[in-house]
Amino acid sequence: MSEAWTFVCALGEMLPGEMRTVFDEVTGTPILVLNYDGDFYALEDRCSHEDFELSSGSFDAEEASIECVLHGARFDIRDGRALCAPAYSAVPKFPVKHEHGGVWTRDDRG
């Protein structure tokens, strides 16, 4: 588990409906951070159906979901749960905090 937080962007730099990928500074895990209506959520940038980056897919800012471009699996960005086949398992969700004028995340898996 990483105790170090990774800087994503300055608060206000990522607008609602936008997303950005960062890499956890300790574990090297790719983390997809999404702004849903002013709230930030972070998921592992990897589809649980097939090892492919979710950041290549489309973020539906009205439905709070992201769709994998490879096979169409969709996930709820708020908790990572799979919303449709071919994915059946959730994508890991990570904490996000606002501190020192920035948005931060980390891989908190133990």
Automatic annotation (TrEMBL):
Q: Which residues form the signal peptide?
A: none
Q: Which domain of life is it from?
A: Bacteria
The reply to whether Iron-sulfur figures as a keyword in the UniProt entry is yes
Pfam families cross-referenced by the UniProt entry: Rieske
Q: Which UniProt keywords apply?
A: 2Fe-2S, Dioxygenase, Iron, Iron-sulfur, Metal-binding, Oxidoreductase
Domain Rieske intervals:
6-105
Name any one GO molecular function.
metal ion binding
List the protein's name.
3-phenylpropionate/trans-cinnamate dioxygenase ferredoxin subunit
